[in-house]
Amino acid sequence: MVKLTDEKVNISFKLNGKPCTICVNPFKTLVKVLREDLNLTGTKEGCGQGECGACTILLDGKPVNSCLIFAPQVEGKEVTTIEGLHCRGELHPIQEAFIEEGAIQCGFCTPGFIMSSKALLETNPHPTKEEIKVALAGNLCRCTGYAKIVSAVENAALRLAEKSPSPQ
Predict the structure, then answer these.
(1) Radius of gyration (Cα) for the chain, nearest Å?
(2) Which of 44, 114, 129, 145 suits a disulfide with 54, CB 3.0-4.6 Å?
(3) Which superfamily is assigned to 93-163 in CATH?
């Protein structure tokens, strides 16, 4: 018989590009570790059941709901939160686009949308409107009606294309 214990465990992973080791309860979710233990409060916990996408982070470059991940599951992996997107104190082009397009409203869902958008634009730098909608389907917003969010991702794709060197 397996004995469940809440004895703390050490986990080591890369967090926003830097090594991180922390001792945590093995049944604590990643969103709680990020917010409560690491003071990274940009990642929001909405439903706590993987339905709203507010807690979306990138795990090895893929968007996941951090409320569904137990902290030890990130051992040896790379975690990127909204706090990891800035570069030398400047907003990421996706963040700039969300602000410019007015896609932030109350802001609670915004980090999750931005992280899902980043994952999309990393794999598909020129998505269609339909591809954007599919990529963001796991994120819910009660304020914007989604049109501004889709426009923000289109804007971000253009911004990122301008910043990347042209293939020769």
Answers:
(1) 17
(2) 44
(3) [2Fe-2S]-binding domain (1.10.150.120)
